[in-house]
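Input.
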Amino acid sequence: MPEFFRNSDALLPIKADVYDQDAQSLMVSRKNRVAVKREMRKTKRKISETVQEIVDHKALLQEFKRAVEEKKRSVEWHRQYYKTVIALTEVMFFGWLLFVLCHYFFITY
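Output.
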């Protein structure tokens, strides 16, 4: 026989307390029950609104993260572009300078 059934007499005081609590809760007036139900509906509504706000904030956060990543990619692309433009400008300038100096030395000597 399971341990629970052998010691069921030990549970009698606990059961009596539960029954007392049930009897007391049945004595609550109808007015109080209606007020409690109203408060429960308000609380449920507030909870659902809070959950919706959390979902909305999470969606906004995801959108913000996506925009930040897109901006980082854009900034990196522009950085590489300008590095390339500066490198080509330097090559063209030094090529032109080398051409001018060589032309000067070969023509004058």
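The mean pLDDT is 81.
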